[in-house]
Design goal:
Elements (H helix, E strand, L loop, with lengths): L2 H28 L4 H12 L5 H8 L3 H13 L3 E6 L2 E9 L9 H8 L10 H15 L4
Antiparallel strand pairs: 1-2
Helix pairs in contact: 2-4
Length: about 140
Amino acid sequence: MDFNSVEKIYLKLLQTQNLLNNNLSILAKEYGFNNTELMIYLDIKTHPKTDLNALCNRLGLKKSAASKALDKLIKENHITRTTNPSDQRKIALTHIEFENKDLCKETVLSNTFNGAAISECDLGKINSALDDTIKILTNEI
């Protein structure tokens, strides 16, 4: 293993994570959310009537962290939780729109990436490299 190259990749991933979190935090604060709450809200908006397991799988969250954030979002009337009448174990989550504010995934992505000229990048290569990184980190290679 080329530890020098692996260390460089590791440091770039940390830097990327930090930059994404910082940019996302700025937008999340505008809506009174933290990063996790914002991502959960947007995921539920994109996948209405989803459940906790599906949400956690898509976002890579632990159920305990997602449950805590969901409880706050429900308490603050940003998300509704509906129980299936025929199976009380099944819960459907739905978002509640903000008044006078359009919060959508496109807005968040544009702001998170600072409106960068994404078209100048080879997004296919970036996506493929990230897929490979995830495979390595999850021992799928």
